[in-house]
Design brief:
By secondary structure, the chain is an alpha/beta fold. Helix content is 36%, strand content 21%. Helix 1 packs across helix 3.
């Protein structure tokens, strides 16, 4: 289906409809899809929360959110009014079984209500996923055209993830469950599949014979802010590595599917997760680094320590660096280095594939540095790719070598605004396209691999290493690569 084709009529219900995620991401994304003509006349948005607001009050709240979170140049008054007219609000305490009739009545009052697609977006704590699904079923609101969207975290470990999956799975078929990872909706991530599988020049080099190592970095310049209470129970390993970074690793390392479709891509990603080298206690000690930011200077401004932000001394990690390997025929012996952290110098997400040096020095009397070829895939911001090569500097006389790069900026190449990840993913949910969403076995395989790290790090002797805010993490993260004769590829 053409991604610009309007979707079928839909009742899009957001539990947590007055929360930060809904107002900052979901409703702005729906507005932008409405602006581009993708929402049909019968598309309704029902916000569900405990807030005592009526439809008009909810529309006023969303109008303020659009002005705050959508660029002024993208705001179109008639489209804003059109979206606001689609909005409704149901005040509901999820635990109050008797109150669910209000949502039932609102969903049933639409024309041909049983024939529209129903999306239930659970922008709430994972502990409520099972309860909400059970009440939806009891209220008779789950139809063959119903879908449920689950926001991370998908549990806090393997056991809780299995509990969440089982509770939701008792009501919804796996094909109707959309576990969202917004990183997979980014244009550069999707383009990684196209780059790999719609072009022939890279595939012969995409293996252990020619690739020296792979680096995946997701860094943030912000601290925990208002998420301190959640983050202190989670930490960077659960919050970022178990989902975002492992998903990026899967897309880099997966085998070519027969064709790109809903299950074929997810089948290949699962194989990568199952092939990751198991993390023994010895490997956790040797190949992982946990850090926590201390006070420092970030983006030119003083930044408080993590302990000061959460209000107490904590053993929660805000930084993770680790080394792993995909133990299969294609990648055996190629290290994958993963790194993520808060209060780092800048916000950037990038995949760097570093190729091996040429097997023979052909220019023994040349001048200038030589560097390994590198493919930088920028996920955010300024999505694009850069291929680093060695070229001859123009001029007579001897050969002078100089590193150069071939740049692809998506914004410059295509001359259009790059849609936010949620814009793409929300429309995929409505269309029923599960390709970019995590399947249950993927989630559980990721938790299985992460479990030994969580267990080892939970020991009293383990404490995250401190690093000043505004730096690239603890010194131990640098040492992790230096002992292999490598270094982190920092943003240029």
């Amino acid at each position: 289906m053409d991604p610009l084709t309007p979707v079928d009529p839909c009742d899009f219900t957001v539990f947590g409809g007055t929360g930060d995620l809904a107002l900052r991401k979901l409703l702005p994304a729906l507005y932008l899809r409405d602006r581009d003509g993708q929402l049909p006349e019968g598309f309704r948005v029902i916000g569900v929360s405990r807030a005592e607001v009526d439809d008009d009050g909810y529309r006023a709240l969303v109008a303020d959110a659009l002005r705050e979170h959508v660029a002024a140049a993208d705001l179109d008054a008639p489209v804003v009014e059109r979206l606001l007219a689609r909005l409704h609000h149901v005040t509901l305490d999820i635990e109050d079984v008797a109150a669910w009739h209000q949502l039932h009545d609102r969903l049933k009052d639409g024309a041909a209500s049983d024939d529209v697609t129903r999306v239930f977006y659970l922008a709430v704590a994972p502990g409520l996923f099972g309860t909400i699904c059970e009440h939806l079923d009891e209220a008779g609101l789950v139809t063959e055209r119903s879908r449920v969207v689950l926001e991370k975290p998908m549990g806090s470990d393997l056991a809780t993830a299995q509990q969440v999956n089982a509770a939701v799975g008792r009501v919804f078929d796996e094909s109707s469950i959309f576990r969202i990872d917004h990183y997979l909706g980014k244009e550069s991530v999707q383009n990684l599949l196209v780059t790999r599988f719609a072009n022939t020049f890279l595939e012969p080099l995409w293996n252990s014979r020619w690739v020296d190592h792979v680096q995946i970095t997701v860094s943030e310049s912000i601290g925990v802010g208002e998420r301190g209470s959640y983050y202190d129970r989670s930490g960077a390993l659960r919050d970022m590595v178990q989902n975002h970074l492992l998903q990026l690793l899967c897309l880099v390392a997966m085998e070519p599917p027969t064709y790109v479709d809903r299950e074929t891509v997810r089948d290949e990603k699962l194989k990568v997760l199952q092939a990751l080298r198991p993390m023994t206690p010895e490997l956790v000690d040797r190949d992982t680094v946990a850090g926590q930011y201390a006070a420092g200077l970030c983006e030119g401004r003083p930044a408080a320590s993590y302990a000061d932000e959460v209000g107490h001394t904590s053993g929660t990690e805000t930084f993770v660096a680790l080394k792993t390997e995909v133990q299969n025929w294609r990648w055996a012996g190629v290290p994958f280095y993963l790194r993520t952290g808060k209060r780092m110098p800048e916000r950037v997400s990038e995949i760097v594939v570093v190729f091996k040096e040429p097997p023979h020095a052909m220019f023994p009397h040349s001048e200038g540095p030589t560097e390994a070829n590198r493919l930088h895939i920028r996920v955010q911001p300024d999505e694009g790719m850069r291929l680093h090569m060695t070229a001859k500097e123009p001029g007579p006389g001897g050969i002078r070598l100089r590193p150069v790069s071939l740049d692809l900026s998506y914004a410059a190449a295509f001359g259009t605004r790059s849609p936010d990840a949620y814009e793409r993913l929300l429309m995929d949910v409505v269309r029923g396209n599960t390709t970019l969403f995590m399947r249950r076995d993927e989630v559980e395989a990721a938790w299985t691999w992460v479990a030994p790290i969580l267990e080892r790090w939970s020991q009293p002797s383990h404490r995250p290493r401190k690093y000043p805010a505004g730096t690239h993490g603890p010194v131990a993260a640098v040492t992790l690569l230096e002992r292999d004769g490598r270094s982190w590829q920092e943003t240029e």
